[in-house]
UniProtKB/TrEMBL annotation:
Signal peptide: none annotated. Residues 6-249 form the ABC transporter domain. Keywords: ATP-binding, Nucleotide-binding, Transport. The lineage of its organism: Bacteria, Pseudomonadati, Pseudomonadota, Alphaproteobacteria, Rhodobacterales. InterPro entries: AAA+_ATPase, ABC_AA/LPS_Transport, ABC_transporter-like_ATP-bd, BCA_ABC_TP_C, P-loop_NTPase. It comes from the Bacteria. One of its GO terms (molecular function) is ATP binding. Pfam families: ABC_tran (PF00005), BCA_ABC_TP_C (PF12399). PANTHER family: ABC TRANSPORTER ATP-BINDING PROTEIN (PTHR45772:SF2), CONSERVED COMPONENT OF ABC TRANSPORTER FOR NATURAL AMINO ACIDS-RELATED (PTHR45772). This is ABC transporter ATP-binding protein. The keyword Nucleotide-binding applies. It comes from Parasedimentitalea denitrificans.
Length: 253
């Protein structure tokens, strides 16, 4: 098998007596979508945060592109190429689409919060070029001057990906990108993610099973902080442990 670009090794994290991550290991290889599923509170977001850098693991290691990043900051990880989209939108709704991409690109570069940095940034030709290129890649170029609040939910998700693209990510971490989208929006975003995997593999946390089953090359199932199974869509659908622990409430999966 190809060498993993992301390699999570025996990561554990407790909140008091609660083991939110219990000795978790998983990998992401180039070109794949690896979905992480599990019931509410299973520890999916907690794991993503430990990979992205927002939360410190109690033990274990995170390796990215051949380098240990366990103790690196979120910004350092982003600079190395760990792209992330969030469960709750981090977009500034009253800014234009292009401004959000520039703002995001500055944030990734660790320059956000410097007063007066943003206005000149909007005149920075190189930065604007990066922003427009990212918008073109997600198909939002014609919306560059649109106020973000006017975009549909699905377009906002695409904009979040454009923000992540400004750092040429080698991996995407996505926490519930389908949340809040209707059936049609989910379908459209599914098609988009299917293409995006060729730019960078995706670790996808998602509750939308239609999306997961149509996109994932591999699925890992997290229950009470533990990965109870990893496998292909068919393997996961037919795994008796998974069916009773997680998919049990849905007879037909
Ligand atoms: N900062 C925290 N302090 C204490 N407990 C936490 C903290 N963050 C998460 N938890 C707990 O850890 C467990 C895992 O939470 P997490 O948000 O990772 O689950 P999840 O699988 O992402 O859930 P969902 O599908 O609802 O987003 C939950 O029991 C949650 O209450």
């Amino acid at each position: 098998m190809t060498d993993p670009i992301l390699d999570v090794r025996n990561v554990s994290k407790s909140f008091g007596a609660l083991k939110a991550s219990d000795n978790i290991s998983l990998t992401l290889v180039p070109g794949e979508i690896h979905a992480l599923i599990g019931p509410n509170g299973a520890g999916k977001s907690t794991l993503i945060k430990q990979i992205a850098g927002g939360l410190k693991a109690d033990s274990g290691e995170v390796w990215f592109d051949g380098e240990e990043i366990t103790h690196k900051t979120t910004v350092a990880r982003a600079r190395l190429g760990l792209g992330r989209t969030f469960q709750v939108s981090s977009l500034a709704m009253d800014y234009t689409v292009a401004q959000n991409v520039v703002l995001g690109a500055l944030g990734h570069r660790g320059k956000i919060g410097l007063k007066g940095f943003f206005r000149p940034a909007m005149k920075d030709k190189a930065l604007l070029e990066v922003a427009h290129d990212a918008l073109a890649q997600v198909g939002l170029e014609e919306f560059a001057n649109t106020i973000t609040s006017e975009l549909s939910h699905g377009q906002r998700r695409q904009l979040e990906v454009a923000v992540a693209l400004t750092l040429s990510p080698k991996v995407f971490l996505m926490d519930e990108p389908m949340a809040g989208l209707g059936a049609e929006g989910s379908q459209r975003l599914t098609g988009f993610l299917d293409q995006l995997r060729h730019k960078a593999p995706i670790l996808l946390v998602e509750h939308d099973m239609d999306a997961v089953f149509s996109l994932a090359d591999r699925i890992s199932v997290l229950v009470y902080g533990e990965i109870v199974a990893t496998g292909t869509v068919d393997e996961i659908r037919s795994n008796p442990i998974v069916r009773s622990a997680y998919l049990g409430e849905e007879d037909e999966v």
